[in-house]
Amino acid sequence: MAKFLTKELIKNANDVKMELVEVPEWGGKMYIKSLSAIEREELRKEIGEGSDKEMDLVKVQMKMLSLTIVGEDKTRLFNEDDMLWLKEKSAVVMDRLFLISQKMAGLGADATEEIAKN
Fold it and tell me: Residue of 21, 22, 87, 97 with fewest CB within 10 Å of its CB?
């Protein structure tokens, strides 16, 4: 039977999931991680900004990937400035990484669209 959780056990639990992803088009591999609650809120706020309420799929993709792609040292590989050139990369690669990112974040296509609408 499972033990009762304490605040300390929860605080110290490593609940961030990571998946090692090969990207042959870029000549290597990277991790894609799950989102924390604060990162999911950051994603929701970023996507919801702007006067145009239409969902910008590239903006959604870039923000999600900037939050979830990490390197060997488990720190983010990309920041806000990187989104400018990252969106020029292959759509096939970016779509594949985005789908893995959605899965790791526990967000399906419907959930991502809903975040973008709000």
Answer: 22
**CA angle 34–83–101, rounded 5-degree value:** 20
The angle formed by the CA atoms of residues 78, 19 and 91, to the nearest 5 degrees, is 55
Q: Judge whether 12 lies within some domain.
A: no
For residue 44, is it within any domain?
yes
Residues 6 or more apart from 117 whose CB is under 8 A from it?
53, 55
pTM score: 0.79
Number of structural domains the chain divides into:
1
Structure tokens at 49: 């900004």
Residue found under tokens 């591999």: 29
Q: Dump pLDDT digits (tens) for 48-103.
A: 765 454 557 888 899 999 999 999 999 999 998 998 899 899 999 999 999 999 99
Q: How far apart are CA 101 and CA 103, in angstroms?
A: 5
